[in-house]
């Protein structure tokens, strides 16, 4: 990371952040995306406005000079009038490459369990404990698409995490949603997310199981008009996209209702959209590729195939 590039960072950050604050300070948005490699020297730096808290994340340990200048610039930003009247609660800096991914408070007071808002829906985050806070912001348009498609449908949400897709599906009028993920703690937070939005959890099933050992159970709860596949790119001991994705695709014929839809996602820079298209052609030939969903504009990438890929298929 380049100290000389920090002037561009603060220019972009302040423009995007203050534009968001003037539009809707309660809405969550990424306000700087260095990971898209559109800003030379800032590739390991992001900034997220979390409905009142600004989270700056360093994905690589910087040189001491860079860190000193970054901190000085952040403090100076909090002294501006527009920040002072923004209603901001905290400015946070997370070091992803340090042991435990520690988070320090640059300004204000940390709210470790904030409730944020995205497109009128609420989500419970957990800051300062894990690398990921509970909602992947680059999937905003994917959640929007599910909300638009879910009316009166039975939905299967594979690798559900904190059930963001499930919340969106019920907001769109889904008949029922089945969420499955090995991490039961994340599913508990998913239940909290449904309750935050005053949704009927009787329409939701939470399965804290290994997907690859649960096909019979999933089939008995189906078939589903909409299936969402959003796995981690790699999770040691449980999932690797290059070797395990096809195992899921082979099961779609047993799970998907006639004329049903599949939203298949992958976020590994080395795996392009064609990986999903070719894999579906080979392992679920009954499905036809329809479209790739756009990523949010704030997640611009110099190499679009390196970012999130969310593809729609239809039976």
TrEMBL record:
The keyword Repressor does not apply. This is Methyltransferase. One of its GO terms (molecular function) is methyltransferase activity. Keywords: Methyltransferase, rRNA processing, S-adenosyl-L-methionine, Transferase. The keyword Endoplasmic reticulum does not apply. Residues 29-314 form the S-adenosylmethionine-dependent methyltransferase domain. GO terms for biological process: methylation; rRNA processing.
